[in-house]
Amino acid sequence: MRFYACLRGAWCDASTLGSFLQSYHILLRQIGGIILVIFGLHLTGILTLPIFYWQKRFEFRPNRPSYPASFLIGTIFAIGWTPCVGLILGPILGLAASAATLGQGVVLLLFYSLGLGVPFLLLGLGVNQLGRVLKWLKPHVGKIEVGTGVVMIAVGLVIFFNLLPYFDRFFNMGINV
Predict the structure, then answer these.
(1) Which residues, in sequence order, are CB contacts of 144 under 8 Å at separation 6+?
(2) How far apart are CA 53 and CA 57, in angstroms?
(3) Could you read off the pLDDT of 85-136 as tens digits, one per residue?
(4) If we measure between CA atoms, which residue out of 91, 93, 65, 107 comes closest to residue 158?
(5) Which of 153, 90, 78 is CA-nearest to residue 116?
(6) Pairs from 18-26 (Cβ < 8 Å, separation ≥ 24)
(7) Cβ proximity of 111 and 175 under 8 Å
């Protein structure tokens, strides 16, 4: 629920900002493509940028557990994950901002929130059983990171050169947002 509350607010902000920045969409699309390529180059290890390793931490220890404290910790967690989810959330917010109705945008964000939150819930419920799977994945994290970087470079180039509309012709599957 915290994910959805944060994302709903972000969507409303993005919708307002999106209409304001419509005149710059070509430049912004190209900048976004360049940023994705830079992230991809970093993930593959071709380009190492120290800024991607910076961290900021603070401690919050409430005296007793409460719903507002849980909400605050969840909100801080969601904000901390913004760089991780932002690469997927950005396009979804774009789709939500350009959706025909407010309801369609809300549905997109609801399913995104479920897709983000449900795996964490399942991981929490089955952490003991999934320990073996996570141990098996640990030596392959570097390969997964390089593969993710290659995909990000490809997506960045597709976005930069505005090739997404061509993919839409072939992979639409009848979904119109």
Answers:
(1) 137
(2) 13
(3) 666 777 777 777 777 777 887 888 888 888 878 887 887 787 777 778 778 8
(4) 91
(5) 78
(6) 18/93, 18/94, 18/97, 18/98, 19/97
(7) no
Are 177 and 95 contacting, i.e. CB atoms less than 8 angstroms apart?
Answer: yes
* 8 A C-beta contact, residue 156 and residue 36: yes
Alpha-carbon distance 78 to 92, whole Å?
16
- Any idea what the Cα angle at residue 135 is, between residues 44 and 45, rounded to 5°? 10
Cβ atoms of residues 93 and 11 within 8 Å: yes
Residue 105: which residues within 8 A CB-CB, separation 6 or more? 11, 15, 95, 96, 97, 99
Answer yes or no: are the C-beta atoms of 93 and 14 closer than 8 Å.
yes
Structure token digits, residue 28:
């912004």
Spatial separation of the C-alpha atoms in residues 135 and 56, rounded to whole Å: 28
Full-prediction pTM beyond 0.90? no
Q: Which of 157, 160, 158 is nearest to 171 (CA)?
A: 158
